[in-house]
Queue: 4 jobs
Job 1
Amino acid sequence: MAAPLVLPGCAGGQSALDPAGREAAEVYDLFVVMVIGGGVIWLAVIGLLVHACRRRRRTWSEEGAGRLIAWGGVAFPVVALFALLAYAVWLMPSIRPWLDRSVPEPAMIDVTGEQFWWRIRYPAEDGMAAFETANELRLPVGERVAFSLRAADVIHSFWIPSLGGKMDMIPGRTNVLSLLPTKTGVYQAPCAEFCGASHAYMAFSVIVMDTKAYDDWRRRQAAGNRPGGSEGERLFAHHGCAGCHSVRGVTPVAGLGPDLTRFSDRRTVGAGALANTPENVARFIRNPSAIKPGATMPAFDMLSQGDIAAIAEFLTGRP
Amino acid sequence: MRLLPKEVESLWTLFTGPTIWAVHFLVCYVAVAIYCEKARTGPFTFAEMRLALVLVTLLALAGIVLSAWLAWRQWGFGSGDPPHDAPTREDRLLFQGFATLLLSGLSFVAVLFVAVPLVLIEACQP
């Protein structure tokens, strides 16, 4: 009876039980098979327990009991475990299509975990230039994408529950993961390896789009921001924001902190910490550590409210 | 003290199955690990190594079946029912035979479980 109330919790943009990619679907199938298998075995064992506890019992003959133990306690577990093991091992290559090395490394999307955000580099493709972005991944539906995964400081882990994974990001190593999104939508990806004080606030959005929208987005991203000469744009450079954050087309390349080019397209501020609104951007600028403990960006609470609001307006494109 | 006893009545036979299982596991694990590390320079292919390990597996299974048959014989081909817990020489022999038989069964299944990935995994992870 509780199932209809509880089961909706399994859906959503960050659930391995609501797959939107081929690898996640395989994991889901494995999960369903294991749950059903486990459930049937559990019911059988409980059935035997009830049978053993029944009131009026007729004693089993020693031979009958021995047969039950030999079949139910030896033969059945051996065969069932063998089948489940074989199924799981057989699925492995499709859950982790690491054998597919047809994509050369430079053509992969490069994702680097840093405390506590994600540096994302798209390669040049089909005449579109390479570019860097942060904390938001956009993917074309129905196309296999390969990621090269790195870490800049400590171990992080790359996991998009709806699409597949996870794969650790280890400093000094490049791990490769390949995914095939099958449904358009917006998904959430948390860092899946404890990486410090703001581990819980380290997430990125994944937006799976149809190919045309994806190509348009790539073109826009590669082109960067258009200089508008706004007050916020001037203050962004004047107060030193541009020393760490690039806004391509407007400021020189910095590369220390998250790239903020076309920030207005993003869904969140601070790698999934807050929704992307001018108020939240202002809050973040004023004191990043209040939102993300341990964040490397210093507090800019010495700036006037007006300056912070202007910078937030420049970034979000909204007053 | 002799390392190998004169008579069959020894605990050594009890460990035959598990020992074969352990050796088989080690051979498979080490062979695949070394092969994958040196895959590019190795003189044989993954398929050849897998075939060799399948042969090792068959050999291990044959060894375990042999040990099980010897144990079955020691147990008197199931002529008496367990538990053989009387403090007599005969019961000790029968008990050991029965225990060896069970351990052989366990080892047989364990060797099969170890071999499953060999059949289904296709190549080394880069």
Job 2
Amino acid sequence: MAHRIEIALKRGVHDGRGAGVAHRARNFFHLPVTSCTSRDVFKVDVDLKPKQLREVQKIFTDPVIARSAIGRLAAPAFDWLVETSFKPGVTDNLGRTAQEVVTDTIGRPLTAQEGVYTGVQYLLKGALTREQVQRLGRDLLANELIQSIRVFSAEEWAAAPADAEPPVIRDHTAASVHAYDLGGSDADLMKISRDGILSLSLAEMYAIRDYFNRPDVRAARATLGLPDQPTDVELECLAQTWSEHCKHKIFAARVRYVDEQGREQVIESLFKTFIRAATEKIRADVDWLVSVFTDNAGIIRFNDKYNVSFKCETHNSPSALDPYGGAITGIVGVNRDPMGTGMGCELVCNTWGYCFGSPFFEGELPAGLMHPRRIRDGVHQGVIDGGNQSGIPWTRGFERFDERYLGKPLVYCGTIGKIPRTLQGRPSERKEIFPGDAIVMCGGRIGKDGIHGATFSSEELRHESPAQAVQIGDPITQRKMYEFLMEARDLGLFRALTDNGAGGLSSSLGEMSSMSGGAEIDLAKAPLKYEGLQPWEILLSEAQERMSLAVQPENITAFLALAKRRDVEANVIGTFTDSGAFVVKYGDRFVGRIEMDFLHDGCPKMEIEARWQPPQIAAPAPLRAGNRNHALLGLLGALNVCSKEFKSRQYDGEVKGLSVVKPFVGVQSDMPSDATVMRVEYASNAGIILAEGINPFFSDLDTYAMMASVIDEAVRRVVSVGGKLGQIAGLDNFCWPDPVLSEKTPDGPYKMAQLVRANQALFDVCTAYLVPPISGKDSMKNDSVRGGRKISIPPTVLFSTIAKMDDVRKAVTMHFKQAGDLIYVIGLTQDELGASEFHRWLAAEQGTPANYGGTVPRLDVPRALATYRAMNAVIEAGLLHSSHTPTLGGLAVAFALAVLGGDLGAEITLDAVPQSGKLSDDALLFAESNSRFVVTCAPEQAATLETAFRGVPCARVGTVAATRTLKLATAKRTLIESDLDALRKNFKKTLAGI
Amino acid sequence: MNPKILIITGYGLNCEAESSHAWTLAGAAPELVHLNDLIERPTRLHDYAGLMFIGGFSYGDHMGSGLAFGARVRHHMQADLAKFIADGKLILGVCNGFQIMTKLGLLPGLDNNYFTQSVALMHNDCGAFQNFWVTLRFEEQSPCVFTRGLGPMPLPIRHGEGKVFTLDHALLDRMERLGCVPCRYADPATGAATDKFPLNPNGSLNAIAGLCDPTGRVFGLMPHPEAYLFPENHPQWDLQKLRGELPSQGAGLKIFQNAVQFLKLT
């Protein structure tokens, strides 16, 4: 029998959770909630004697601030009570910890049928209708996809019995396997694909049908007792392995690209032609590439002792359905990439970045979409909890806002790892698996979580998108597994490992078995969270916190014993073979057999049309010449420019104590740094620099220019703090709307052309800059068709950079340091205001927000390289007191942030700024031209500095002043004159407390 | 000989690397031991001169920070911990470690009662986890051996539940009288204790940042001294360097050096 325990804070103790609900209900929902108190509810479904139950109650209750009762706890007067709890089968991390506390308290492990489940009660006061309370429950307190919400009036609550019923899954459906008949019509085949959320195309269904019709395949299957037609295990496994998410079919497709002059080009695989080719070309010129594109994360050499790895992922679709769960899974999931790279990397730091609709959005939302403020809050909290609880510091973070992210938010999460270059005398990047090695799954158990996650993310967001596609990460289970794996690695107890992410076991074992040449697993040996899973569900489940390993037979006893000591679940579920096939059993029965060649190479290649036609976007009407204070203040407060400090401070950025240049710098630690710098180990002054570039707005004018600018931004940020050309590696994350021509995507060829152009730029710029892409990911179906309205994201590329820094103590930060220092502008400012922050601000001011066209910033590669070489030299020589690279908002915003960081003033003569031709005031102030820096040095260093920049656009434009005023003027007029307080206030107010 | 320090790991604690580095720099010999290995043979505790409960997120802070880890330690190790304290040894707790010690009752440990919780570390008044730097002031009259002779010290805080709280004002007064409050959040401009956010990041009563027992040998605090070992950890190290004021080591190290000095003298 289950027991209910209710816990409340004592009178006089501040209830922050309750107060927060009341605050949001009043301010965001405009509901008359006068007060809210909150309580915790535990349903302890454990066989306990009365004395044991009282002990459990006592230990659950903080004696200083809380009180509790078994059953109902007397409540003060309220009007409405809302109780939320997880639906059956949803990860309940609090419940899991409570289970462990109960275990410790009663001194015995819980049985498989026992468990502890949690919920929260909100006691509301105020003149509210039931409908209003239900809305609060749905839109503020819980997510109906994963939680149950029950609403009671005071009278109903008094009359209702105390509910101790645990939300358990009691599904005793026997395991069964059925075969699909692929002998039907095309319509039948597509119905099978659609009904099963398999996302298989007709061509792919044909390929599968033909494979199973092969006589040799039939014969091999017959010997195992398998039917001629594919089983659900096999069809699901193929659908996962061939999903866009796992197979990157669009990047592998044959593309026929036609440019605006009608010239045609056939491209066999964008990935091979542009991305991998760039890295291969650069390989001859750098000596630090260790492992690229082959493992879960790219590996580069750091120093004699360590290699460093980096991976960045997106978790967009799950975050749209359950922002918290999707995002925590995103960060904890990407942690497993470096963890599963080589022989397993230690985790060094995390990065994050999000693209959302405006949190202040007031228009009409298509039915079924969450408000962007709610998505944003949930996503931040998920990554905050995931990163903080895992003990991994964040280093970079950004947010971009645009209405086109209403349909699908973009949630980027990245992780950097490090690994000794050799382990047990072998190169640590080398994974080997031999026939006979045991297949071990370790970490969490398998439930229905995340089933069809990979195929689902390969589709647009629809109303009927599956609830099981949501997982909730459990950082503590993963942390335990991580520490265990590192210990086992250093003892040499396994031969290879990889993570279970999208596609679950089917994906991880599918990959690993190609190293030995086959595998045979028994799904009945995999530990389950609850009964009732079908064999294909066990194979596909994306339940989190799991790794698959290859353990040599002689180590298996020691490996399992260590896992037990560390309280980590580990089970042998099969054996690697060299049979050439992936063979699946359930108990004694064979339920699947797919030949490795077909599994990995049988997917037919897509053919996609791409046609480029430059878009026509009008520019805003030019502003009349005059003062631009209001424009600068407007830009500083614009969502894409303004301070993101409020949310950022909730992420732990200092665990491990290795940070050098933090995400926020300046005398008040409140200005975003150009790039961050951290040590990698305690014993060395060498470190890594991390930065990124992202600009979806330029995509609207030309994705070639967008990609070039984004790479330049990611590189020049690194250069700004002291990173050197030749030591910078890149990571590309493409997020695109569906670019394949179809009835619902008539503009597919244009979107595909945008993708081609971005890839062309990537090859051109990366090879010129010697910045090899070492890893990356794409997410190609970022559209929503909910509520009958299609919303597609703008083509968005996050380009992340990582660079080694030989001595982190030479790092330079972005803010002005002392009065009297000379200010220089390096690089050329051009008439490039197209899609700039200024044009978008101006277009909105003029009531025509779509008219933000103009000339998009271009890249002059030779000039950029000369500039970066000179920057490398002056920083190495210690000449610079500050260095800041302009991005959104151009020079005006750059000057503003540099003075704010220093809490010092500056007087700038804009005529002196190096420029092409004679620019307008607005272009001088706000153009977002590439490859520029604002730097300062001591007056006595002026001559040395100017010599170093000979041959590069460079001009002294002013002096740092003690006046706390920023003045930007031409010979004709003062364009901007503002005291620092007004600038700071505008920069910080937009998202203060939000 | 360098005094041996036991650092307990596992279950979501995560500051083992920097804590170990801090003790090593200070001249001690730290050893990382998983909680399960310690529970298997709790008497090995007595091989060490000092014990550290490090920061992190034991059990994800579910059910209240430190509760689950504290319950496990109490269940398996209470007698050995009592003996460890009675033997005159040192215990340090940082952040989650401080929370665990408070849940156990090790702090403030009045009247030799080390295993009854008497104060709480509550959710920050601001309602969220926070990471930024604060300034600590140290109280000269405290018997705390870790904080002897220290001036104002900048350190990072990284917590969601750091507000020292009790409804029992008599208890608070006794803790103050006995010198159990060795450090407080302070305004760097004046050096005075402060209630103002963000100088006081959590709304702690009497601006309490850390507590010790009446012997001064058992000490816990919310800010992270082990996260300020390098001079470049300081958020304004760039300005300090330009002005020639960059220290040779991070100030947080002094707390560990004080402990090692005490152990070497006893």
Job 3
Amino acid sequence: MIRPAHLIACVLLSALAGCDRPEPASATHDGPVVALRRLTPEQYTNIVADVFGPRIKVAGSFDPLVRTDGLLAVATAKVAMTPPGFEQFEAAARAVAAQVVDERNRSTLIPCAAAPSETFDQACAQDFYRRAGRLLLRRPLTDADLNPRLALAEEATKARKDFAAGLASGLSSFLTSPGFLYVTESVGATQSDRLDTYSMAARLSFFLWNTTPDESLLADAQSGALGTEKGLKRQVERMLASPRLERGVRAFFSDMLGFEKFAVLEKDTAIYPNFSHTVAQDGREQMLRTIVAHTMVARGDYRDLFTTRKTFLSDALARLNRVPTPTPGGWGPFEYPDGDPRVGIQSAFALTALFSHPGRSSPTLRGRAVREHLLCQRVPDPPSDVDFTLFTRADPHIKTARQRLDAHSNSPACAGCHKLVDPIGLTLENFDGVGQVRFADNGAPIDTSGTLDGTDYTDPAGLARALRDSPAAPACLVTRLYSYGLGRAPGAADRDDVGALQDAFADAGYRLPDLLRAITTDRLFYRAPAPVETRTASR
Amino acid sequence: MKILGPLTFSLATLVAPAGAAETLGFVVTDWKTAIHESQFMDECPEGMNAGNDEYWWRALPKDERARLTNNGTTPPVLRQHMPNHRGPNGEDVCQEPWLFDDPPLLTAEGPTSYGMNLDGTVDGAATAKTCGHEKFTGVDDRPAVDNQLYRLLGCIHGWRSDGLIEVSANGARRTNGLGMILIEVTGVDDRGNDDDVTVSFFRSIDQFTIDAANNVLPYATYRIDAADGVARYGGKLKGRIKDGLITTDPGNLSLPFYGNYAFQTIDFRDFRLELKLGDDPSSAEGMVAGYYGVDQLWEFVGELGWQPTGTYSCPALYAAIPKLADGYPDPKTGQCTALSSAFLIKTVAAFLRHPDGRAQTARAEATQ
């Protein structure tokens, strides 16, 4: 079976080794390809750091992903490789390879090439490529992987009269190969409904650690131990106990909560002088720290994230929130008192500021964010002919967002969606466009009453309780996690499995580590979808 | 989960529980010598004082003046070594001012000044702690104001609103973290009216947090300067709040000061504070007043006079200080050793962190 991404890349890579013919069905992947997922920028960076060390930096940016079915992780299975997009990967590969072979790093990463040399050293190159290539391609190398790159390295060494430069050429080829840029999932030769062990290793590793499988996982994949119940459980427990798990959990919640928007978050500093990029970065970090501390360290009930008053503050966030810095110069835990509107993760900067306009709050954006990111409920986009003048016009009699929205959402075309999102977002009006607490808007007191799916409340604490008690919240987490792991939204065939996981999550007291364990030890998590349909052009 | 380190939420809440007395913290962002300026400069009927530079070039023959100043095109800052060493044998005019015979300082006149009644008299007659002097009426019409520092400096351009001394000092403090004064008001049951609060003064070891427009941002946390676990400075005054105005009893205390490249610990006597809490809790403005020792004052202005921004004659100022001194007479000579003074201050709300790690309690603040 020919891999479509491989074909695309080969068009672009025609001059590079490994692309003069279709990548063979590897002996290390037993059966046909059933899924391809492009690496995210974070995964690319993590892999480079894990394989070559944190000193090797990944520069540049990659083609953005378009959020699909609530997750960027799902989009990775649907994204096409464009020529300019591939150029970005190629530039990154060349930069990484150059760092790996430069004098500062070569002695530790490629000891046999530590001394400068104009001569190609076959044994040295082979040893380095075998070690690094296994981790980059997430499987042992075949001759078809290795030999063309060795040839390329030898040729480049001769041309440049520099063995290190030759090694870099071969390494660049690995880093631009489809097998690296796309996580390839195949089924076993004998079990066509189940991923082979290398695909299981990759799925596990990217799900829990957001990086490539390590040597232990690959060894168990190679031996087949990962395919056994006992072997799988042993690896899952090892991975759950690893410090890398925090990175994986952070990656998942960054995706679930739409944190890619932080990259373009801007505020009008004339209106919000407290805003800075430090504040924005800290706001993102605050949410992730709070989630990790509550769900993973304290093993708390996931639903309590919506009612917790505990958080973490940096200097910049403490100033923004008008409270003392708990740990000057660093991060420290902080707890807001009863009665304070800052309750639950939905009141944090990472939601209230991220889902606001540059110069004002937005009940609609916030309400939609809660519905879509926290409850997995789809809110349609506004119609293209919507008239915003009612909302934005300067009317001295209209002071609060509720008054503006009332005037705007009375329109029948708008009312349907606004009824879904406004009763949530208007309760969060206690937070201005950068998440600072306020009780009045343009001098008028803010009415924070609202309703969530039949539960009425009067303030952010009431919204917090309603979210905590909403069955949609934990169900959403399970669905999103499952989608995140699979790289696709659950289909009809997955319904029972997701339902069982939701039940198990509830039975375990909504503890995230137990949910991760339940998902990753569930054989259905490794069930293969239908094989990828590939088309070969007849011309 | 090693990245997060200890994650137990054992830290006691930093937010004041409902009903408990609260603490208000402020960092002083602007410190300005209280100079009253009338519309037509009535307080300086003879105009502004000339500076060392002007005294120097006026005394030169025309040709020599043109030569030494390159026909007046060399700016004062680049020729300051000449006016400042205009003694008969090149003596420094600010280091040895008694050697010079400049005209007397032009002092501020008129009935009005910022300030407070420091001596407790209505007419400025001499007391055991003061020398006889003329009183002002306050800018806010309060009676019997003492402010001899204003009389001394009021007609020196550098100290007025379009002069450079205060602008330069406040501007430098924005970014260098020197002379950072913290004010802490404890025991506040009611921000509007409270007859018993304590006001403490500290120095911060943290710099201002400023926004893109160079404004100091409120609600930052400042660590109090300490040695061996004990706060430096740390003077305390008893006080009260009436209609949002914090006032204190007088007391002797020291404050850190930095301005125009001069460091100083000012040892005020009979120091007191007035700080008005406005509707916006993120800032407060007010005035401090007290007796400023003449030796310390000369230590500052003597150094400052050397700079072209000084725009005064060091000898004239040096001669005027003892004449205007109105506080704390020397027991032997009867000569007063301090000047009544007042300074206008602006502050923004801040959180103070004590040397023992105790953070100031605070109530939840809203932006509006």
Job 4
Amino acid sequence: MALARFTKPVDGTIPVPALLYDDEDLVTSQDEVGIYDGSAKSPLHQTGALTLTSHRLFFISIPTPFDSFSLDLSHVVRTDYYGGLLRSSAKITLHLNVSADDKNDSEGPGEESEWATWECEVCGNRNGPGLSPAKAALCSLCGVPRSLSSSGPSTPKTLPAQVRTSLTSTLLPALPARGTGPLTSTSESGTEVIACPACTFHNHPSLRVCEVCATPLPLPALSIQATRSLTASPAPSAALKSDDVSSIRLSFRKGGDKTFYAALKRTLQGKAWQVAKEASSTSYTTLSTITGGVSGIMSAVQNNAQQRNTSMSTALSDLEALMSQAKHMVTLASELTEQIRVVEAKAKAEGRGSLSDGTEEGEAANFIQTSLAQLGLSMTNAPITQDMVKDERKWMEELTRELAGLLQQGEERFGNNWEGEIILDGSFGVVERKKSSSLMRGRGIVGLDEIWGGWNRARGVALIPPSTFLQALSLLPSYTSPPLLLRTFPSGLSVLHTPRYTHVAFTCRLSSLITLSGPHTTLEVAQEERVTVSLAGEMIAEVEKDGEICRDEVQVDGPFCGGRDVRWWLNVFEDYAWDGQT
Amino acid sequence: MALSTHTTHSGFLLPSIHSAEPFFTQQPNPNTQRIVTEQWSRLILSYARHRNLFSIRVEDAETAGSEWDEILRNERIKRRLLPSHLSHILSEMVAKSQAAYEPPKQTRIVLLYWRLPEEWAEVLHQWVTSTGQLTTILTFYEITDPPVPSPLSGLPLVLLRKAIGILAKTGRAQIISIADGEGARFFAGTGK
């Protein structure tokens, strides 16, 4: 008798997609399925197509379409699978929850309102039909649950349809109380159609008003109830006996059982009917199905705002995580540096000299220091922040000292060479190059962007804005030895450089280079000076501006590419005296 | 890298700067470029005097085969003067009245003043005097293409007119319209 209690009749001549709620999706379907009501075959439902949606299970009977029914998946508490043996086909048993069914019956308005529109008492939005019961119980605009009492007062300005709806909804709660079982109204109206009291037109049982003259129809709830019992169980007495049975079996005559069972399991786990309920009560994200009118626009706006909020908060949480990671790194770095210093002090005390003497410890320490420097994390203590120093001037000085330390730390130890120093390893006789651990990395000229980035990485927290950085740079020469100077090229590129790379020193070197070994291209000069090509280009351009050198430009036409080759000459015109024909 | 002078096929002595590669490049530094332009102007004018050339075109730098090849190209160092550079040099020469755009209102062809029009006027007067043709009427053709080659041979008409105009101002010449064109009569002395 489970069939009669839990299923709702549907018109099998209508294709299933047309029967769906607005927020319901088709999952899968299977032909040639028979239905068992409990353990007995249900005679009317032996050949049909089974369709699974996100909310319901449809059985469309092929020989007799009007015996088709739908079953809310919310009733299903458990499923069993039987693989089939010999001539017995595979079966799925659906165990149905009795209490859920009773509750649903008492939720009269929700069920009825599938086919009716209603007006929200809070915002006055008219909610259309076609939503799943869970969703239809809430206003699509403001999310306020539909209340029964509120429907009444709105009658004066509403259409007859609403009057009818409110009437039925007030009537319905009394229904379960009236009868003990679902079979209370057997054949009160006796027909599947409702005759209009005004024009006598035979309306479909689901209609509230007459299709022809719009006159409210009498007691549609009762007639539906009757129809349900009639279609679902043509033999009420027989059904009564199996009242305690609360399971339905689906028999797959032509296979397809495995895929269907998998889909069913998935859908049951998804609990789309519950999701819909929660979503509509908490947020508006799932309400985008309603797009018409002002309510549609408002919900869309709210939707967007919600999404923006979510993405903002996730993005910021990422940043916070990064900050905390950076803090960890900085602490780790300072700990390592501290340890190295201790070891080094001990080594010195023992008279073994510096750490680069080839011992295992020394190598490890060097490795750590180099990798820290490469990460830009080599520092002796925690970064200075503005709240540690009150005085503005003092703060700037401290900052400059910190920067100077970063820039020149290790330079003394490894000498002030351009590329670090070649150290002979006594024990193995291996020549290796040691890079200095400072930000300058042994170079004489470094772009400001790199220094700023390296400094901030080394600080990790309380990052320095470029403006403060530039202020600190102006104090830098007095804190560094040899002084590091700031130089800005005409192109706007700013660099820090050692005295070796001042304009005058470079001009001298370039002149002597050309004098000694002839004209050079920018690339050759860059190689000679161990700076990047673009930096060399900038420096040469400055010298050219002074008229110290001049250029020889030649169009190179290769087979595949052409270009301009510029070679730099000393200024051959400066002291030229005419020696040609006069 | 010692630069040396070089004598061309036509017997012109090229200056040593002509065998320096940067000489053929337009220098971005204005001071350097000023010197380069000066040297080029001097080279062009002395070569023009040497070959008795009166005009130079920007196109001469583009295509080989013109009478200017000897100075605009240096095959020994594989360099040539680029048209844009030549155009710049010519404009500087016009600005310093070492040349003039001829015809006017274009910048592709210039008339070279390796002698200024005033100097040409003196040369003309001297020639007329020395050949004993004072007070006789001479057609322009007779002046620019005399049977005996003279310093005025091949002188462009524009320059000749200017020279005669200068002489006329001081009363030493008079332009006369004759049947088959124009002519001039020259007078001795500095006034009437």
